[in-house]
Amino acid sequence: MLGRFCKQFVATATIGVAIAFTPTFLAAKQNEIPSWLKSHVGVRDGKIAPVVLQRARKLHHEKRRVGEIKNPCYMAMDATRPSTNRKGQATKRFYIICEAQKSFRAISSGYGNGRNIPGANFSNSRQCAKNFGNAEGSNLTTGGSYVTAEARTSFKGYIQQSGKRVPFYRTFLVFDGEGETSNARARAIGGHQAAFVRKQCRFKDPNNRHADKNGYVPFGQLVDYTSGRSNGCTTWSDRDSQEVLSLVNRNPTTLYIYPESGDIKAVARAVRANKSPARTGLYWNSSCLKEIGEPKFWTKRKLQPIIKRWRNSLPKKPRQELPICK
Question: What is the average pLDDT score of the chain?
Answer without folding.
Answer: 90
